[in-house]
Prior knowledge:
Blueprint: E1 2-8, H1 14-26, E2 32-38, H2 49-64, E3 68-77, H3 81-93, E4 98-102, H4 110-115, E5 118-120, H5 129-148
Parallel strand pairs: 1-2, 1-4, 3-4, 3-5
Amino acid sequence: MKLRILSVGHKMPTWVETACADYIKRMPRELSLEIVEIKPEKRAAGNSTQNVQELEAKRILEITNKDFIIACDERGQELTTIQLAEKMQFWQTLGRDVSLVIGGADGLHASLKQRADFLWSLSKLTLPHAFVRVLLCEQLYRGYTVNQGHPYHRE
C-alpha cells in the first residue's frame, strides 16, 4: 500500500522538506509515503473562494481516483496515536492506496469532503499548512512503529 499526502501549496521552507524527507525514508517499502504538491489556484478577480476550492478539489479527485481518501478537516474525528495505528492496520486490508488531503488557504471544497472516506481532525487549532505536512509524516511513521512494536512510541 502506498500512502500519499496531497497538499495544496508549494515552495515549502527547507525545514519542512528536510523533516518530511526524514520520515519518508524511515517508512518501509510495503507502506511507502510520498508527498504530492497540488498547485493552488490563483485568487484572481472574480475567482471566488468557492470556485478556487472547486478547481482544487477537481484536480485532487483526478489524482486520488480509486484511493481511500482521508480529508484533513477541523470538523473531522480526532484520533489518538493508538487509534491512528489501528486505522493504518485497517487501511492495509483494503487493497487500495491511501491519500491524505491537506487543503489550501481556502480549505477543502464540500464535494471533496463528501467523497472522502474519512474526515480527520488533527487539532481544533488552525495549523500552518507546512507544519501539517511534517505532522502527518511523523504521525504516520509513529503509527507504523506502534504496529511494529517498536519503542519509538511510549505510553
